[in-house]
Amino acid sequence: MVRKKKFKLSTTQIILLSFLVTILVGSGLLALPISSATGEAVPYLDALFMATTSTCVTGLVTLPTVSTWSIFGQIVILLLIQIGGLGIITIMSGIMLLLNRKMGIGDRLLIQDAFNLNTMSGLAKFVKNVLFGTLTIEGIGAILYMLVFVPKLGARGIWISIFNSVSAFCNAGIDIIAENSLCDYATNPLINAVTSALIILGGLGYIVWWDVLRVLRSRSKKNRRVFRHLTLHSKIAITVTAGLILVGAILIFIFEYANPLTIGEMSLLDKIQVSLFQSVTTRTAGFASVPQENLTNASSAVSIILMLVGGSPVGTAGGMKTVTLAVLVCSAFATIRNKKSATLFGRHISEESLKKAVAVAVSFVTICTVSTVLLMATSDASALDAVYEAVSATATVGLSRNLTPSLNTIGKLIIIVTMYLGRVGPISLAVALGSKNESQNVISEPTEDISIG
């Protein structure tokens, strides 16, 4: 008698389904009348859109968050943001550890895939550190926000501070302050500094945190060369992040300097402050201190590039990631200079890393292109607005040139799918839906050179 093969989900499929189930449960809760500020149920498509943008920590919204949702609805949204930023697998593993339950091999594989880690050693400690570090930083951020919001808004400022801190750290870009996001606080130094710090810390990734702390603890007071002793991953993440933020801020400052609709009428210090924030928030955070539709075309193009790159691996940010960009650029220069392999900070980049970087870049560009074409085909959006929206959704940023609220039903569905694909990762999706790897013992196809370029 032939036994039927038992169906078993792969770890990647479980991760994909965990996000999907979270979105569906969240949309069901947000579709309830209790979630609406008016007491009347929000249309399910808008509830689904809100659940998706929250779980995928994107920030694009079809309805104003501050005026559409009740306190209950806002709590649901905040929980979805936290789950989306950390991942349902991480949270469930944290609960298991709190209950003193040991993590099995299956649990460890799930965490390894969820964070794209190269090893399974020390995963229990890693999860504890992630949860503790996240709650600590979000708590500090909330307290600092209260210094501004409580004196101005009273008791409501406490809830706004907590919500904004979680949203900023998770790079969600959703807020309950006003319908124009942070535009009313564009020149507030504390709000800019706290929000930027939360975005950058979430975007750098947990691996960079622990690596920096490791080096700081191990170095003597006389030897303060911390950067030299960091891992290659941390060096790339920190260097590329700092470089993109600085270059982005300078370009936006130049292109917007005389624009009266953005920073043209501000003082020099405020111009610098707003330009820097715009460069930081495009790293998949999604908070807006100036209306994005008022940016010049040049600034919009810079923002699109920054959004597409996004943050760093093993963090809360989306996008292709800084390490992917560094690997691709260095590999390109190595090829131009006729070198056998690319190097970064005195280390050779493996061929496997290069293959992954190419696959990620191609996947992201493909999703952005398809989403842009579909948006232009189903709406009257301009090319710039459609590209901005598609890249923002794919890289889970949340910035929009005011196109999201005007999307029709098909347009909303396109963005919902795009946000989901951008969050779970094109490569993870391909692995989950694809067949098993072919045996390595089969005869390989013949090799033949082709002309490129």
Biggest sheet statistics: 2 strands, antiparallel
Encode the helix/strand succession as letters: HHHHHHHHHHHHHHEEHHHH
Summed up, the helix count is 18
Strands, total number: 2
Task: Give the structural class.
Answer: mainly alpha
Number of domains: 1
Radius of gyration: 22 Å
Spatial sequence of strands, sheet with the most strands: 1-2
State mean pLDDT (0 to 100 scale): 86
DSSP strand content: under 5%
First CA to last CA: what distance? 58 Å
Contiguous uncertain segments of 5+ residues: none
Helix content: 55-70%
Anisotropy-based shape = globular
Could you explain how this protein is built, in words?
Helix content is 61%, strand content 1%. It is globular, with a radius of gyration of 22 Å. It is mainly α and 453 residues long. It has helices at residues 11-30, 44-55, 65-68, 71-86, 88-98, 105-114, 123-153, 156-169, 189-204, 206-218, 232-256, 268-281, 297-309, 322-336, 351-378, 383-394, 409-424, 426-433, and strands spanning 343-344, 347-348. The chain has one domain (11-218, 227-429). A two-stranded antiparallel ribbon has the order 1-2.
